[in-house]
């Protein structure tokens, strides 16, 4: 029987609101967990950026990483800490580094997911300093007929970067003329052409965090602060199961422990269109009503992993998924099997048991925190970073009101 402190590191960039809430709740909670004969408490620290010796030890048990996808010094520190010091990080940095939208489409197509028809096209332009470019293209690049591809796929379609994010370079194409224009303007980017899922009757973003899932009806046409709708009951239990199994399959397959999946429903079928979002949007300014759910998901999974010393899965093991894919089963049964396997990998049952046993005080502290001035100040700070001065108060009030609505609906 020992008293042990587990240290959770937050590796952050421009994040403002969720870390303040995470830290505030942990401070109020002052959680102690009896696990495997030990009494465990938790310390939260922000990871700093500085020179490091590859052999220096690491003081963290778990790191929540929001930087790997673009800040490479931190990414390399994280990789060394996993390899050398047994650190647990979400998300898996190698999986973030090597999998982009394109790979995720291909892998999930292989598992039978109804991803819309997608083509990759070579880029319109190239960097000037590629010495082998001329002989390569001269010998092997085939002239292709963009219009023919467009006609073959049928309009409307979307043209978008194979590794995209943040709607950059995404264009809806309705005819050959707009297709040529969008391709010409895409420059050096490598683009996908993807059949539009239209008309769709539902658009859902499913957030997965460890084994936890949360479904939000999404309205892509709304202004940023209204895209995550507050609608309830937009999908029946069967649809919900499909969406939850889908996001957990993607996440467990790729080693992403927090990620979101966008799916559109057409003729009763959910078509995932964008699910390479490891490190998804966590800002109150877009999530508003859903923000407390996400903060709690961060907390619960971090505490669970730190307390139980869950071992980090350093590399992927895809064969069990392919083994299911090979079976002579309808896709809906395969998806259930992928979901089951993914829940096992994400220790869904153990996590649930742990939460029931140890995290009830967290539910209380979290709910209370989101009614405090400290929570409101965190929201205001985020709003002030994004909005012009005259909009800071009205938008702070708007997001605060929606967070209070969440509290009203989710009293512990
Ligand atoms: N195949 C498709 N069918 C219907 N709509 C699509 C399709 N592909 C993209 N869209 C629309 O374009 C938007 C942006 O596309 P996508 O999500 O693939 O790009 P992104 O750059 O990853 O966006 P973000 O990072 O903001 O989620 C989607 O939210 C959706 O509204
Ligand atoms: Mg998207």
Structure write-up:
- With 412 residues, the protein is an alpha+beta fold.
- The chain has three domains: 3-98, Rossmann fold, CATH 3.40.50; 117-194, 2-Layer Sandwich (Dna Ligase, domain 1); 202-409, no CATH class.
- The chain is built from 16 helices and 13 strands.
- α1 (17-29) crosses α14, α11 packs antiparallel against α12 and α15 (373-386) packs across α16 (389-409).
- The protein is globular and about 70 Å long.
- 39% of the residues are buried.
- The mean pLDDT is 96.
- Magnesium ion (MG) binds at residues 262, 274.
Question: Could you provide a short overview of the structure?
Answer:
With 412 residues, the chain is an alpha+beta fold.
The structure class reads alpha+beta
Shape descriptor reads: globular
Q: How many structural units, i.e. domains?
A: 3
Intertermini distance: 32 Å
Main pleated-sheet profile: 5 strands, mixed
Number of helices: 16
List the helices and strands and how they pair.
Layout: E1 3-11, H1 17-29, E2 32-35, E3 38-46, E4 62-65, H2 72-85, E5 88-90, H3 93-98, H4 101-110, E6 118-121, H5 133-140, H6 146-153, E7 157-161, E8 171-173, H7 176-185, E9 191-195, E10 202-209, E11 212-217, H8 237-254, E12 258-266, E13 269-274, H9 284-287, H10 291-308, H11 319-326, H12 331-345, H13 348-358, H14 360-369, H15 373-386, H16 389-409
Parallel strand pairs: 1-3, 1-4, 4-5
Antiparallel strand pairs: 2-3, 6-9, 7-8, 7-9, 10-11, 10-12, 12-13
Helix pairs in contact: 1-10, 1-14, 1-15, 8-12, 11-12, 15-16
This protein binds adenosine-5'-triphosphate and magnesium ion (MG).
């Amino acid at each position: 029987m020992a008293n042990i402190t587990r240290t959770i590191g937050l590796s952050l960039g421009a994040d403002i609101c969720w870390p303040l809430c995470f830290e505030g709740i942990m401070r109020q909670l002052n959680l102690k967990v009896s696990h495997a004969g030990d009494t465990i408490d938790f310390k939260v620290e922000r990871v700093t950026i500085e020179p490091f010796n590859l052999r220096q030890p690491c003081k963290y048990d778990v790191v929540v990483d929001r930087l790997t996808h673009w800040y490479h010094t931190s990414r390399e520190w994280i990789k060394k800490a996993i390899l050398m010091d047994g650190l647990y990080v979400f998300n898996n940095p190698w999986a973030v580094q090597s999998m982009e939208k394109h790979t995720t489409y291909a892998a999930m197509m292989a598992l039978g997911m109804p991803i819309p028809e997608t083509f990759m096209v070579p880029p319109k332009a190239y960097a000037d300093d590629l010495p082998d470019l001329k002989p390569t293209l001269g010998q092997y690049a085939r002239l292709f007929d963009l219009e023919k591809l467009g006609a073959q796929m049928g309009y409307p379609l979307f043209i978008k970067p194979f590794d995209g994010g943040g709607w950059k370079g995404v264009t809806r194409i309705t005819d050959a003329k707009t297709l040529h224009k969008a391709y010409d303007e895409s420059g050096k980017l490598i683009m996908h052409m993807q059949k539009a899922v239209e008309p769709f009757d539902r658009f859902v973003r499913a957030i997965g965090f460890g084994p936890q899932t949360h479904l939000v009806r999404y309205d892509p046409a709304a202004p940023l602060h209204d895209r995550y709708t507050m609608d309830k009951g937009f999908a029946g239990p069967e649809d919900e199961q499909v969406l939850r199994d889908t996001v957990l399959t993607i996440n467990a397959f790729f080693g992403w422990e927090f990620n979101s999946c966008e799916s559109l429903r057409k003729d009763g079928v959910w078509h995932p269109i964008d699910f390479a979002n490891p490190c998804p949007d966590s800002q109150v300014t877009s999530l508003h009503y859903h923000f407390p759910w996400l903060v709690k998901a961060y907390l619960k999974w971090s505490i669970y992993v730190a307390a139980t010393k869950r071992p980090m899965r350093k590399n992927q093991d895809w064969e069990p998924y392919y083994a299911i894919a090979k079976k002579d089963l309808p896709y809906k049964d395969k998806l259930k099997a992928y979901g089951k396997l993914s829940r096992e990998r994400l220790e869904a049952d153990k996590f649930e048991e742990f939460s029931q046993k140890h995290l009830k005080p967290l539910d209380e502290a979290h709910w209370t925190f989101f009614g405090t001035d400290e929570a409101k100040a965190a929201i205001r700070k985020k709003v002030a970073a994004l909005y012009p001065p005259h909009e800071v108060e009205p938008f702070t009030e708007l997001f605060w009101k929606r967070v209070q609505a969440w509290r009203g609906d989710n009293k512990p």
